[in-house]
Design brief:
By secondary structure, this protein is α/β, with parallel strands linked by helices. The protein has one domain: 3-Layer(aba) Sandwich (Rossmann fold), CATH 3.40.50. The protein contains 9 helices and 7 strands; from the N terminus they run αβαβαβαβαβααβααβ.
Length: 282
Amino acid sequence: MYRRVEALPDDGKACTLALLPHLSESKPVASSQTSAVVTGASRNIGAAIALRLSADGFPVAINYFSENEKNDALNVQSEIRKAGGRAEIYQCDVSQSDQVEQMFKAISADLGAPSVLVNNAATSVASAITFREIDEAAWDEVTDTNLKGVFLCCKAFDKYSIEGSFRSIINISSIRVSIGMEGNSHYTAAKAALIGLGRVLARELGPSEIRVNAILPGAITTPDQAAYGDVAALHRMILESQSLKRLGMPVDIANLVSFLVSPDASFITGQSILCDGGWAFQ
């Protein structure tokens, strides 16, 4: 299924669909019928991951949360199909076990048993809410998606994936875990828990040849950054903090996912890898 694919072109814009023009040139022919599941794949990092995994030869399951995201999911699906790939979209609240079960059952029937799961879906918080401002309902809303949802998807993946299909789980965590950024403790706590969960799963699922790793993205440029107010000031702060003086893009995360699920990374599991331009060092 795999061969090395050069980094996708990037025009400097946040829109991940702009990365598509050359996918058909590097797309390998799949040699087995297993699929890749990407949760929260209608926009931004999730969309870039879906596009890259399609370029790597996977039929891709594009998960999205609500009707408001359906058109974005359809756009990702359309771009994959234009490049000669296979993709289907699946609306699912990953915090609901019955919906997750139905989604994985449908994916297996439509695209083949999954061999890759990328847990990217997350409830994010635009403003920095302090610990004292977070109530129980807000805590539950964030952790239900960002932690419980990952647990449920991992359970379903373990059930529906096939032994011997070179299986890999990637959990998308956050640089907040490494630098202890103020605010949004519910978000940071859930993202930190993904690292602990991933290490346990790497131990328990390793004998079944399922690898589990986490990626901690740094400040990745997306349209959502506008919610933080002065985007130019935000970018200046980011560049001052980073060793590399360019802004991170969704494709940077997608390229790392591509490597981690490939045979080139077959001896890597239980790891938490920063992709942050040299902001926080481990």
